[in-house]
Amino acid sequence: MPSAETTRVNPQQPDPVRPTREDEVAAAGSEFIGGPVGRRALLGGSWWTPVRVIVLVMLGMFALGMVQKFPCYDGAWFYGASSQYTHACYSDIPHLYQGRGFADGLVPYFDKLSGDMDYLEYPVLTGVFMEVASWLTPGSGTIQHQEQVYWMVNAGMLMICAAVIAVCVARTHRRRPWDGLLVALAPAFALTATINWDLFAVALTAAAMLMWSRGRALAFGVLLGLATAAKLYPFLLLGPLLVLCWRAGKWREFGVATLGAVVSWLVVNLPVMILAPEGWSKFYTFSQERGVDFGSFWLILSQHMDTPLDTDVVNTLATALMVLSCLGVAVLTLTAPRRPRFAQLAFLVVAAFILTNKVYSPQYVLWLIPLAALARPKWRDFLIWQACEVAYFLGIWLYLAYTTSGDKHQGLPTEGYQLAIAVHLVGTLYLCAVIVRDIWLPERDVVRRSGDDDPSGGVLDGSEDVFVLGYAAHPPRHAAHDWEQPPASVDWGKSPDGSH
Q1: Which residues cross the membrane (predicted)?
Q2: How many other C-beta atoms can be found within 10 angstroms of the C-beta atom of residue 290?
Q3: Is the residue at 494 inside a domain?
């Protein structure tokens, strides 16, 4: 993001976009903090730059999310299975401190665990994150005290990841730093940030997106490979990038990015793969063998079937649906009247993976939140989707409370939980539909209406097309400098006298 000083000395550079000028929800919400930011305040060189404000808001929301977990911190994680669900404060982190051998000093992937799980079932870089947190956790005191400290240490490390995400999202679209507030203020982000370790991979993915937006293909690839070494989903971003580079003829950049991703992934994984092959493969075999689980439409189907589908059948069907979804995104990319933005396709592909997967843990929403802020920075649509995700967050814990409360049946019965799953699915599909509409009708795209082409696209931004299909194959081909600007949007933040 350009500094205030750069903006003042370079009058040819367009002003940053103010959401309160183009978004009625943002304009209305700004009244709670004194009204929309004016041009003079935006460019005036104050310490309160958009990125710093967004980071502080992110840290504040993250802290509120930690407070929301305090009923469990004070004992619900240890003294009652049901109470951690009724308070909606469950977290995997304290339970796995002892359950995965960190309390006993076992080395992930190399030392076997006791019980049903023989090795740690997480990718290597996430295992490293968990191990580092265990090193920072004192081994004295009761096991309950150690688990509390382990959660607090992880929360501190994950808070750093949250700050990184805020900075990266705010800087990815140079002229739209305030879109980072969508991430910082996302209620589902605060509620799910400390359930598991997903924020580590999300931070690496956000940093990779920032590097690509700056035209640094190798750095993008390296960071994306590291993100994939922490969680599987980031590698999906190479799919839409392939089709976009195909349409724009940017094969060299795609090759560099792919090479960087493969090499960095191998650097992390090869040592463990060679020295502890059984432990290394546990994540992949566990993912394959895991049955239908919480949050997926497969669970709704299985609960309505006399004979639920076999796990292998579900794996095959889920893979087929994902492949079809990716093919659909590819066709959309090559036939759209204007080349889609990278963030739009990244959201669609990751959302397709979430929707077709056989499990949806509540923290998986973290994968989508930064991508949603870049793909569709419109407060109304974002908040509709977030409301659906918060409903699911509450639904899964109330359902688990119902299943663990014995004869009391406190919580949400099966039918209610199925409704919560449906709400999550519909909310995600709604945001996907709006993004597809933006791709097919570029004049509806909020980012492009403000004068940009593809600010997260790096070398793709403003590039000519070299390969298109269908409607897009007919002239004129739409590149950034050929695009006719639509009329300026309504200035929702302007007062009657014309000031802001």
Answers
A1: 47-67, 149-170, 182-212, 218-244, 256-277, 313-336, 382-400, 420-440
A2: 14
A3: no
